[in-house]
Specification:
The structure holds 2 protein chains of 2 kinds. In chain A, a hairpin with a 5-residue loop joins strand 4 and strand 5. Helix content of chain A is about 70%, strand content about 5%. In chain A, helix 9 runs antiparallel to helix 10 and helix 14 packs across helix 15. By secondary structure, chain A is mostly helical. By secondary structure, chain B is mainly α. Chain B folds into 2 domains: about 90 residues, no CATH class; about 220 residues, MetI-like fold (Orthogonal Bundle). The longest helix of chain B has about 40 residues. The model of chain B has no long low-confidence stretch (mean pLDDT about 80). The chains are: A mainly alpha, B mainly alpha.
Chain lengths: ~475, ~325
């Protein structure tokens, strides 16, 4: 096994480190810590953060790439498989390997289309083919098979539900322990402390909304349980045109969405914050130039700007095939540049906001005092202004996340998004569109892409609301955008 | 007022010049005319064929500065000056297939504008009404459910609205044609579905924003005075709050206008409407730089004009604004 660090993997891991560093610095700064606690104190905010964290875990697993060693013949040099896999692929190896020939319905035993099947006695028959990797333990045929299938699916679902419930119970117990530890001194009897903690959680009397988090986790456990248990023998979400398991493809799409949602803002931050600070603080002709720059960029419809840039990128990648030896590197390079281009065409909004905020701040006493003391401009911007515009930046970053995830879907549809070979919600929806026109309707691609994309964006939106309300109390009072 | 408009128009021209420069750098400096020729003619072509292709398209001169020429021609006898001068006259040359791009744009602008204008007006109208309703029932369960629904609507990709709309209205109910376009009086039948879909997709974010605006306005002193006079809640909302909320509504509508232009680009291809958006997508898929570059320019003109209009409307709505 040879680890592979794709460009976007590197960025994501760096981002994770930065996030940890930020969390530590928040913990050390009392007022920031209390504001963040405010965001998590809202049940909806905590629940949304839980869902986002689960998505992030899937995405992070999908960022640990490696290439497997090829079986070694004696005297041969060690060689690596051309296929780049990720830790998520390893976890889902049974889903990845179970190819069918073409479409099949969710949980189906038989294919979607009639095919010519060779019978045991050598004759041919036009019928729905039995799927290769669905319900392989069922041996009956006709009505008996249907009956077996019904029983098997029920049994597996129930098993999954029970397993999910057990996990949930374990989590609840863990939460109660944690809460009991926080709330009660060690002198109290441990049994009654635990019972009191469980009661407090059930009544929603905890300082952080443990109940909301547990309900969210409960919903996830009770749906994931049956899905996991069924996926061992069936294609829970059906298969796509070339017989790939859709559950696998949807899970693979999560990484793409997360990378676009986070990396793009990361690219914009130095530009938008830096230029916004300088424009607002220094003013004069520099301010004019920066304003002109962002008006110009803002004047180009972003889809077109991105289309133009991606077109150039495709030509570039085609012209330099040796720079990207594996197909994973090629698709990854395109994703990387898509983020950069998206970022370069969208830093303007935040820049304008930061500039406006700095214009207000620079007239305040503490900045004037710093200037009177002879503090250098650079230092004023870094020490006095930057921390005070961070809340604007933060709110903007979380709000933009969901917009960017949705934008990816649109761009991929137009053909200027990620590489068509890369799993993403955009490419899934794009194929789903034509499938809806078939008869009988192939609805499962659209449905599974919709379910995951909706869950991701909805929780991102609710989390953004909670963060904004915590950091911008004026908006919280109004209870709206 | 007049000096303001003149100044504003001057700035608009400056911005358009910047857009032109930026797209030129993107299309010619990053991807040189030689690359484009090779893209069109194939990888194995002779140097003469490339030169001929460049001469045909007028790309056989230096990009920015012609050191071989004398006087003003040093700057004017360049690719940049010539393409810019023609772009300002909306002459964008021909596509790779030999169609006149400017002519094509003139024909295709009609359906695009029809969609864009109607979506803009209807989306704002519907959002204002919805937000007004939610503001009337503020701090009740109805309001909470309404806001939750709006957030859910915001979280759905426009693509879903389009695909499901086409499927339900077009195929299952067969109320409107799924796609296609006919000019003249029958156009509306083809435009109904895309317009409804786009309005729906804007309803979430816009209605939520407008609701906040109304609530902010409701907290002000004059509202209390109006209530103290004994005016009914309907009158307070309709006569006082709505009017005073117009200023922030106009401002935020200004930011919606470019978004509408962008999303019509995507929507047109879904519904096979021969508008500007469809033309752009064709250009992208055929890797036709001429089309894409022309569309970036036209799109920017539309953007800049819409900003200009919003600014002017802004001054009409709010008499307090002094222009300078």
């Amino acid at each position: 096994m040879k680890p592979v660090l794709l460009w976007t993997d590197g960025v994501v891991l760096a981002l994770l480190l930065a996030l940890i560093w930020y969390a530590r610095s928040v913990a050390k700064t009392p007022h920031l810590a209390s504001t963040w606690r405010q965001a998590f104190r809202r049940p909806l905010g905590s629940a949304a953060a839980t869902v986002l964290a689960l998505f992030a875990i899937v995405g992070l697993l999908d960022c640990l790439h490696f290439r497997e060693a090829l079986p070694l013949a004696p005297g041969e040099e060690r060689a690596w498989s051309p296929e780049t896999l990720s830790a998520l692929d390893a976890v889902l190896s049974h889903l990845r390997a179970n190819h069918e020939t073409t479409y099949s319905r969710p949980l189906a035993l038989f294919g979607y289309e009639k095919q010519t099947i060779t019978l045991a006695d050598g004759r041919f028959e036009r019928n729905y083919p039995r799927l290769l990797h669905a319900g392989t333990t069922l041996t009956g045929s006709g009505e008996a098979l249907q009956e077996q299938w019904r029983k098997d699916v029920t049994r597996r679902s129930l098993f999954g539900l029970v397993a999910g419930a057990l996990v949930l119970a374990a989590l609840t117990l863990l939460a109660a322990f944690w809460h009991g530890l926080r709330m009660h001194s060690a002198a109290e009897a441990p049994r009654s402390a635990l019972a009191a903690a469980v009661r407090a959680i059930a009544r929603g009397q905890t300082s952080l909304p443990v109940r909301a988090v547990l309900i969210t986790l409960g919903i996830v456990c009770l749906t994931a349980g049956p899905v996991i248990s069924l996926s061992m023998q069936y294609h829970v979400f059906g298969t796509d045109r070339i017989g790939n398991d859709l559950l696998y493809r949807v899970l693979k799409s999560i990484r793409t969405a997360l990378v676009i949602g986070t990396m793009t803002t990361l690219v914009t931050l130095p530009l938008s914050v830096g230029l916004g600070l300088v424009a607002g603080f220094v003013r004069g002709w520099i301010d004019e130039v920066i304003q002109y720059l962002y008006t110009v960029i803002n004047s180009i419809p972003y889809v077109l700007l991105i289309a133009a840039a991606i077109l150039l990128l495709i030509v570039f990648i085609d012209a330099h095939p040796d720079a990207f030896p594996t197909s994973a590197q090629r698709t990854d390079a395109r994703l990387f540049f898509l983020c950069v281009i998206l970022g370069l065409s969208s830093w303007t909004d935040l820049c304008r906001l930061v500039r406006g905020e700095v214009l207000k701040l620079r007239e305040l006493d503490f900045v004037q005092a710093a200037q009177a003391f002879g503090v250098s401009d650079q230092r004023i911007m870094r020490v006095h202004l930057l921390p005070n515009v961070m809340h604007v930046v933060l709110i903007n970053v979380v709000i933009r996340f969901s917009e960017l995830v949705l934008a990816e879907a649109t761009l991929s549809y137009v053909g200027v998004g990620v590489d068509p070979a890369m799993a993403s919600f955009g490419t899934l929806i794009n194929t789903a569109r034509l499938e809806l026109g078939r008869d009988p309707v192939i609805w499962w691609t659209l449905a599974s892409a919709f379910a995951f994309l909706f869950a991701l964006v909805l929780s991102a939106n609710y989390f953004a609301d909670a963060v904004r309300d915590a950091f911008d109390p004026r908006a919280a009072r109004l209870g709206g955008r | 007022m007049m000096t303001y408009i003149v100044r504003r128009a001057g700035y608009t021209v400056a911005v358009l010049f910047g857009v032109n420069l930026l797209t030129f750098v993107l299309f010619f400096a990053v991807n040189t005319p030689d690359d484009q020729a090779r893209l069109q003619l194939g990888r194995r072509v002779t140097a003469e064929a490339i030169e001929r292709w460049k001469a045909e398209h007028g790309y056989d001169r230096p990009l920015f500065f012609n050191s071989a020429a004398t006087g003003a021609a040093r700057l004017t006898d360049t690719v940049f000056f010539n393409t810019s001068r023609r772009a300002m006259n909306f002459d964008f040359g021909r596509t790779n297939e030999g169609v006149n791009i400017g002519e094509e744009i003139r024909q295709r602008v009609v359906p695009s504008l029809l969609i864009g204008a109607q979506v803009f007006v209807l989306a704002i109208g519907a959002a204002v009404l919805l937000a007004l309703g939610l503001a009337l029932f503020r701090a009740t369960n109805l309001d909470a459910v309404g806001v939750a629904l709006l957030v859910a609507m915001m979280s759905i990709s426009t693509l879903f609205y389009i695909i499901v709309g086409q499927f339900v209205v077009g195929r299952v109910l067969q109320l409107a044609p799924v796609s296609g376009f006919a000019p003249g009086s029958r156009a509306e039948a083809f435009l109904v579905l895309p317009i409804i879909v786009l309005v729906l997709s804007y309803l979430g974010p816009e209605a939520r924003l407008f609701r906040t605006i109304f609530l902010e306005e409701l907290g002000k002193d004059y509202v209390r005075t109006a209530r103290a006079k004994g005016l009914s809640e309907w009158l307070v909302m309709g006569r006082h709050v709505l009017r005073n909320s117009l200023i922030p509504i106009v401002t935020s509508s200004g930011t919606l206008l470019p978004a509408v232009i962008t999303s019509t680009i995507v929507t047109e291809t879904f519904f096979a409407i021969p508008g500007l958006g469809n033309f752009t997508i064709e250009g992208i898929t055929q890797q036709d730089f001429g089309i894409v570059r022309a569309m970036v320019f036209v799109g920017s003109v539309l953007y800049v004009l819409s900003y200009l209009i919003v600014d002017l409307v802004y001054t009409m709505v709010d008499p307090r604004i002094r222009l300078h």
